[in-house]
Amino acid sequence: MKRDLFILVLVTLILAAWLGWQTRTQAPEPVVLQAGGLLTGAPEDFRRVTGPEPLEFPADHALHPGYRNEWWYFTGSLEGPDGPAGFQFTLFRFALDPGPMPDSAWRAEAVWMAHLAISDGVEERFHQAERFARGSAGLAGAEAERWWLRDWEVLATEDGWRLIADAGEFAIDLDMARLKPFVLQGDDGYSQKGPEPGNASRYYSATRLSAAGRIRLNEQWQEFEGNAWLDREWGSSQLSDDLAGWDWFALQLDDGRDLMVYRLRQHGGSPSPYSAGVIVAEDGTPTHLGVDDFSTSEQRWWRDHEGHRWPLEWQVTVPKAGLDLQVEPLFDEQRWEGSVIYWEGAMRVLDAQSGEPLGRGYLELSGYAD
Asked: What is the pLDDT of residues 253-276, one digit of tens each?
């Protein structure tokens, strides 16, 4: 869900972008990914999402000027010649203060950040890289048929997208074809996250994409194939102040169903009544879920090298769909170490009672590293 939830622009990101950094050359001070964040401009200065509006494709694949933040988010579960892997590619756009812009070819109405990660399930190694750019001089942007930050780019194909990104020590070149219709999250794409006007985002997903291509690890290209997932969101004031973080699951089951649930955590740990999700049938029919339609419970916690505790094994139940799932990571060390601290990793999905493998997916955790 991500998406509604990456509500921050880092001070370090903004400085880096305005200084012309296109690739991070030194590690900025990390900022915890949490419900609050550092954004330029007050929310009321930007357009806000306050109700359903029709979405149009492919036009809505492009950026949405006037909104405070936006993202294009791929995750995927792959299988290679030696075993499993996962990948994440995210392009974030953060609008600057919407006031008057300088008369310059280098003026920018937004700064951009991209995250690229490969989870090597064979060697249990998490490869990650991030980049920054300002939204000027063609350095970064998003059109209906192309999303990019310098030479990391996603290109539209006849039935999906191609992702091409080289981080130096690792790289990915992957074709993804859409197997199901787009899912409009919430109320026809209006995804409400809180009680105040504007505590919402425009949100749609492609919950199952076939994925095939190659990944370079250890200076060697190898062929991979599997499934991927796309989330798209934009808005200006999605999260209310009473939220401490979120737990987001995107699971693709072997029986053809896809499940997305997210628990918005209030201070104190109780789920927000705006927690939600969707289950998508094999034929693409969505069934939307409210906070009372599913449950998520922590089964095992992991402590990172800085002493922060993260819940990495879960039981996820959706009674109306007959699902009682055990969700566990390919390996524990899939925490982001860049300018933003969060955990995002490739997961296995098992039957909670029998232990039978049922699928693969991704988990994102925020707000645990305060």
From this structure: 999 999 999 999 998 889 999 999
